[in-house]
# Entry
Amino acid sequence: MGTITLISLVILALLVGAIGLLIWQRSKGKRIPLAVIFVLGFFAVGLGGIIGFVHKGEDYQAYQKLQWHTLAPEKIAPLVADGYTVFVDITSDWCSICQTNKAEVMHREQVVNALMADKVILMQGNWSEADSTIAGYMKHEGVPGTPYNKVYGPRAPNGIVLPSTLTIEAVLNGLAQAKAL
# Structure
């Protein structure tokens, strides 16, 4: 447990204790405005919600386990013929949608687990700098720029193009549709 989490839990405990003390004092006849109790209760619920959201059990570092291979379009068809599913990610450091896709979808534990499944190969082309392989692949695909994600597999040898703004469901559905039965 990190220091910030510990401090947050201590503050939450103090808020709950203060609310309890104020309610007890009010029941003994002290004139304590209900608004004070409600405001403290609001802060306690908000802080509890934040703590719960941040610690919902997801491993936010899971994406570091992914083994990305450099984009090699000529290897996709043979891999698919051998029963592999190939996930292609064309990205760039300057692409804001690409960075959002990483943070909101590709780095999520549920997606990482699906991408780490048996017989899934990850290929990435980072177009932050000029690259003839990526340019040739994108020209062949008829796409002008990033982000571009496509899933190839035994049931989708020509690939399934995913939306530019990814969702967890789109990635999981694309992988499921492309994989072998």
About this structure: The longest strand covers residues 85-91. The CA atoms of residues 58 and 109 lie 6 Å apart. The longest helix spans residues 3-27. The two ends are 42 Å apart (CA to CA).
